[in-house]
Amino acid sequence: MSRQLVRVDGRQLHVSNLEKVLFPEVSFTKAQVIDYYVRIAPVLLPHLSGRPVTFSRWPDGVEGQAFFEKNSARHAPDWVRKVTVPSPGSSRGRETLDMVILETVADLAWAANLAALELHVPQWQVGSRLQPALPDLLVLDLDPGPDAGILECCEVADRLREWLVDDGLDPVVKTSGSKGMQVYAPIRVTDREHPSRYAKALAQQLSAETPDRVVWRMEKVLRPGKVLIDWSQNNPAKTTVAPYSLRARPDATVSTPIGWDEVEAVLDGADPGALRFRTEDVLARVEDYGDLFDIAGAQRAVLPSA
Fold it and tell me: What pLDDT does residue 92 have?
């Protein structure tokens, strides 16, 4: 195993196997993964701020075995922020998890060196008492079934945008980096279950209006030709892939913020394939447009009752 000491953002970090190819289809190496995360840090880090990160790790690349890792603080350098949070019920009897919060460029380089290709975060931040605060984001995850794709997701995203704006919210949208899309809105709530209730009611309403195009239940038999609005991602125990995160897909795509004008362009006949982005595309887009997923600049509104 090749191993070397590098300096990143004022921190010393051991990195290994930089030449290892993690995405064989496009010959994308671990060194390139680290380089991407270092370069995208200025727009990625604000979206990780205060949010414990779940890693999707692929030590042998995207054609090998993978695992999710929440309890990652035990092998983090002492300069990475650590936080102990209550464990969701699915975590094998553990009452707490020792997680990390990525705050610096060096933190991202450390995670990338672990082959943590994907970074997933909850819709809440750690509060002043080092406990999960109330959710501050609503997410509607659009997952196309067989015989549906990005075009159909754009149709549903556009309808969701109209609904959310009518409810006083300020939505933003990104690709999942895989098959679908995700619509977010910054919110204020007093009840941590409120986003799930609201999202479920919204998904049910759109499904009732167009049952041939939208489904709110996850059963596979219901999904061919339709888009699932996965409202369950608002469960405080769940996480969603972060904006600007790589995805463990053969062509090294990225979950990429897009403009509503790009959604409208697809609806007007533009190629849906244009909404599939790799790392160099994303870095160029940030250079040209800045952060299209500017939650901090969006209006944070009270979530209407469900």
Answer: 58
